[in-house]
Amino acid sequence: MENNNNESGFIKEVVKNKSKKKIFFTRLIYVIIIAAAAAFVAAFVFAFTLPLAKSAAGVKDESDTKVSIPQDSDNMEENDSSAGSSEEENVPSTEAASTSSASTSSSSVSEEAATPETPAEEKTSAEKYQELYQDLNEIAEPVEKSIVKVTGITSLTDYFNQAYENEQKTSGVIIGDNQENLFILTDYSVLSNVERIQVEFNGGKLADAVYQSHDEDTGIAVIKIDKKDISEEASEDIAVAELGNSYNVSRGDPIIALGNPMGYYDYMAYGTITSVSNIISVYDEQYPVFTTSISGSTGGNGVILNLDGKIIGIIISGTSGLSDHTINAYSVSHMKKMLEQLSNNEKRPYIGIKGADVTSEIAERTGIPKGMIVTGVKEDSPAMVAGLNENDVIIKLGDSSVPSAAAYSAILKNCKVGDKVDIIAMRKGAEGYAEVEFSIVIGEK
Question: Of 300, 320, 342, which residue is a domain's last?
């Protein structure tokens, strides 16, 4: 009996200690699970409600709503060297090449032995011609989803006091999407003083647009559409166009024209670049213009594509004066910075000077100092206020030298509205050219 009592007491004590540990660990596990669940729920609620709270309060992340247009490099040497290196990387070793050649020849011999030669039917010239244009159509078709019709609408009354709507039409191209709005590049000439802007997409669906910004010198404008106003059905027929690199465009390159260059829509034509050397000078900027072999009207607009289906030129009515009855287009790479600024409605630096290059050859022949000679000063511009005149030769802007008009434009783009900069120019006097310094406050374009 004594032994039994000791044994039961021993068993009872062991069971008691084990249950306490179980209870402790069980409770600890429950606490951890509940804490983890609460943290997960809190994180989910925070992530779900934060955008709603921002939306309700009207708070937007600026980086999410800005339009970004990638800029191109005009360094041809870089492109050539990178192309060369990639070619070298793809060249197989001599041993591998010989092995591959041997295996190929042996397999081709066995194939010839197995199957007799059957000459392929040659296609006629007409069939080849048809295939060529089918290929060009296939390149252009995806881009047509980014081409739209833009209508500027104004309410008027006639002689009998009857109300009617006056409509001016042009084409446009979708160049940006910031998840909230679509941004469309178009011709400002039909938007000036209109009361309403309507856009028709490729599939025929309509949406109202609002004016965003425009460039007075080139006539280019950007409008935007709230994506909430676009139906899901219409969205299927919408695409953002890809802006290509036009620095590499050469005379003779094949191109495709889309838009409204002949005064009517659903237009598609094929041709070549006939010249890349034309320049249109505007205040504080020079834009290269491509001339083409494609027929067009003086008031036409649209875009030209390369054979990769990328936009390399912007047809605006102001460029048509370079040649009669053919399409001309601004080089798109030279306009990307401006298009991004117009889309984001940003302030653009402005001095108000038109200029031309004085090269070393011209300087040697004429005695004019090398730099940018002023060919025009805009009335009431910062340049006129500072005292700059025509025929002054600008040699320095801020801390940077100005060897050409293109250099002047590049330096100015990096300035900010309101900055105070010094311009050093050479002015001709009775005893020849003398250095003159001007202090200018950068204006807003």
Answer: 342
